[in-house]
Design brief:
single chain, alpha/beta, Rossmann fold, 8-stranded mixed beta sheet, two-stranded antiparallel ribbon, 5 helices, 12 strands, 27% strand, globular
Amino acid sequence: MEKMHNILVTAGPTRERLDGVRFISNFSTGKMGYEIAQAALDEGYSVTLISGPTEIAPPKGARLVRVESALEMEKAVRINFKKSDCLFMASAVCDWRPKRPAAGKIKKRSKKNLSLKLVQNPDIVAGIAKEKEKRLVAGFALEAVSLIPNAKRKLKDKDLDFIVANRLGKKSPFGPVRTDATIIDRYGRSDEVRNAAKGLIARRALKKAEELWAEER
């Protein structure tokens, strides 16, 4: 039976520059994506890690591609997806970016507000899933309400093979915390992980990819 060899992981936030010193971003630390990369390395896979700005040391043995913006991440994913068997799109990509970032530094002017014109960034995982052929594509969903229905909708609408769903609640899911996750595949099967370290969630997500790969080869 043909086995998976090359795992592609995206991790961390993206930053969208307002000017030379300011940016729009989010609270993602990159922990989940880095744990997936480490889990895949531990199982002997060749790993490429595309990372937005983080303060985490990259796992030894992974090929690291650093990016900043959503457009840079999209380009890196498209280049590296061709050589991959499975993509874990764990990064928290900014949905919007300034239409025209300012050169230099925007100066503060007394008693005046600043208006920003934002444009939508590409949906990287939905776009790449259209080109997956026999490859696997895993997405991630962070939802404040209706976690499972919204995750299932994303799974179907974006033509993913499985999705890892997390709830945004009173306790932040960002960083090295214990959290809950539900892994749902395109056949409707789900695997719930409760109060678990992200390393365990990463291993369960990798196991799901291996199961789907084996079933379809």
